[in-house]
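Technical annex, item 7. During the second reporting period the consortium partners agreed on a shared format for inverse folding records so that results from different sites could be compared directly. Each record opens with the tokenized structure and is followed by the designed sequence. A conforming record, contributed by the partner at site C, is shown below for reference.
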């Protein structure tokens, strides 16, 4: 470890150490922001020196290339929070969803129990509108504070932020690439605190039995929304499965499709389509980012060929891949 202006900084350090995939080449520079002030200081230095930078939380929704990142990667560990009223909490973006669940649960508030098993930070979750069981974090957001170009903080009300399925204005739209410093969430009084813990427990159990334990980055692809009834029926007939087994609220389960196309277990090097969940690719040992990408390309091509559907990525790849070759 090195110290630069009092900051914890590393040079040429493997990004595999900071991602749940356990994959990624070296970051030229990596800095840990232990609090909001450090986060602001690091980003000000990067901007001043015109150094490309990327902020990450738990690294649970991304794939870095084998070449790594020729710039500054910032690990966000800013974790302060304050109650603005009895059910309105402002949390810094480095807080994990797990930590957030316990802060709100202790106060007898519900809203986070369906999200707590997602292994990410609030910043990553808001950018990607993370969710589970038909709920997503965007539903709770009342305000987002972004870091301005001059180190100032800009408060953006929820009315100016758009959330959609695994997407937000911060991923695609007005505020793309902005740094989320903190988020204000509106929660609801819980009728029964024990019930909240039970929901959480059931989620943990479901995740333990239905999701792979090998390193991954969660679901690789978004479940495509198919509104055309005929197309849905056509796909179900082609895959020889009941429509309701494949579609929920017009969303097609990519995991199920991959299973029905018999792609589970498909392996390229140490990258493998999980046998437990078709929409997960796991790192069986020493998978490279190239192997993961090759497998992603393969699945995408197969689904396009067989169902004429182009799958969209849920994970983020750095640098973004060129899919034009498909
Ligand atoms: C086993 C497993 C299960 C999962 N289950 C689910 C699930 O049920 N539902 C779901 O939605 N997701 C799931 N995921 C995916 C992932 O956990 C979520 O997308 C999570 O919200 C990502 O948060 P993160 O902090 O890890 O973000 P990272 O992966 O670190 O970053 C993701 C993106 O957000 C950006 N970002 C991070 N912090 C900030 C910030 N402060 N400001 C601006 N941009 C920022 C990064 O630059 C990057 O572009 C799962 C992943 C795994 C490994």
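Designed sequence (site C submission):
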């Amino acid at each position: 470890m090195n110290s630069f202006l009092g900051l914890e900084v590393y040079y040429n350090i493997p990004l595999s150490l900071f991602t749940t995939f356990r994959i990624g080449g070296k970051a030229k520079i990596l800095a840990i922001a232990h609090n909001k002030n450090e986060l602001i200081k690091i980003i000000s230095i990067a901007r001043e020196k015109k150094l490309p930078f990327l902020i990450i939380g738990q690294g649970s929704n991304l794939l870095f290339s084998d070449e790594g990142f020729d710039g500054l990667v910032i690990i966000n560990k800013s974790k302060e929070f304050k109650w603005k009223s009895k059910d309105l909490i402002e949390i810094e973006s480095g807080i994990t969803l797990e930590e957030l669940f316990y802060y709100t649960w202790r106060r007898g508030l519900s809203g986070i129990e369906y999200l707590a098993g997602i292994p990410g930070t609030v910043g990553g979750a808001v950018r990607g509108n993370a969710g589970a069981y038909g709920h997503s974090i965007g539903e709770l957001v009342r305000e987002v504070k972004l870091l301005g170009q001059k180190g100032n903080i800009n408060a953006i009300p929820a009315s100016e932020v758009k959330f959609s399925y695994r997407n937000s204005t911060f991923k695609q739209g007005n505020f793309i690439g902005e740094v989320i410093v903190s988020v204000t969430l509106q929660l609801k009084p819980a009728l029964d605190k024990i019930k909240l813990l039970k929901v959480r427990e059931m989620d943990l159990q479901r995740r333990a039995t239905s999701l792979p334990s090998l390193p991954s980055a969660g679901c690789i692809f978004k479940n495509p929304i198919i509104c055309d009834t005929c197309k849905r029926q056509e796909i179900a007939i082609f895959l020889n499965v009941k429509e309701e087994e494949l579609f929920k609220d017009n969303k097609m389960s990519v995991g199920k499709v991959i299973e029905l196309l018999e792609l589970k277990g498909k392996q390229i090097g140490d990258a493998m389509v999980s046998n437990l969940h078709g929409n997960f690719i796991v790192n069986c040992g020493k998978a490279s980012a190239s192997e993961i990408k090759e497998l992603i390309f393969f699945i995408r091509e197969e689904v396009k060929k067989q169902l004429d559907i182009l799958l969209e990525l849920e994970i983020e790849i750095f640098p973004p891949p060129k899919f034009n070759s498909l």
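Residues 221 and 249 are 17 Å apart (CA to CA). The first strand starts at residue 2 and ends at 4. All partners now use this format for quarterly exchanges.
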